[in-house]
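Hi R.,

Here's the chain you asked about this morning:
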Amino acid sequence: MGIHDVQHVHGMHVVHDGPQEAPPLVLIHGSGVSGSSWGPVVPALASRNHVIRLDLPGHGQPPPAPSYDVREQAARVAAALDEFALGPVVVAGHSSGGYIATALAEQRPGLVSSLVLISSGPSPHALLAQPVFLRVLMGPALGPLLWRIRSDAMLRRRVTALCSGPAEVPEDLIAEMRGIGYHTFRTVLRQNGAYIAERSVPDRLSALDVPVLVIFGSADPRWDPSSAHDYDAAPNARIAQLPGVGHFPMLEAPETTGELLLGFAATGR
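And the predicted structure, written out as tokens:
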């Protein structure tokens, strides 16, 4: 029988969906959003998996944390999974959530059976010039002011500016984004950049003995879509590129994204 349960552990808001006895699938959101960003794909995933969505500290409902270092974030996720006695698990990360998923596999290889990285830029060189709206919002001049007066329409625009076409943006995602502080967002971006500047994600994956599925939109406006093939350097990685999809495949193409996740979670291929 399926469940929908909410818990607060290790500074994170954790939502469980699906049968508890089913294989566990952990979903980690990206910067500036929350676990609700996975909403459109959860019903399909929860039909076959015990789905665990995490709101990281400072995102959604949890309060800010002293540090947003990628490795420390991964350690918090590991502590939560240990508390739930879950493992080994399939871990999927969207955007910078893919960095936390990778760091988790680096720290706890026995805990992670396989990885899914969705729209996770492989290195700083793959970063594209961002849309004007996002550059202004994140800039040190007008950014803090605009952050304080954000409307629901502006928050929705922040998501859709990174999409290539129509996207299903959950209302609870917009509500949870409102609670993310400007300082938190800026700090998280800096820490993410430091993690991939220190060592590229494909290089990190090459040192891990776990199967990896890389999902990339062919029209991603944040990361150069051709950089998805940087992951060819990781021997256990398979790449799936989605035509006409931007940075949020689970919002823009939830059916296709859900099918890819379900297939990979079941087979590791």
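The chain has a mean pLDDT of 92.

Let me know if you need anything else.
M.
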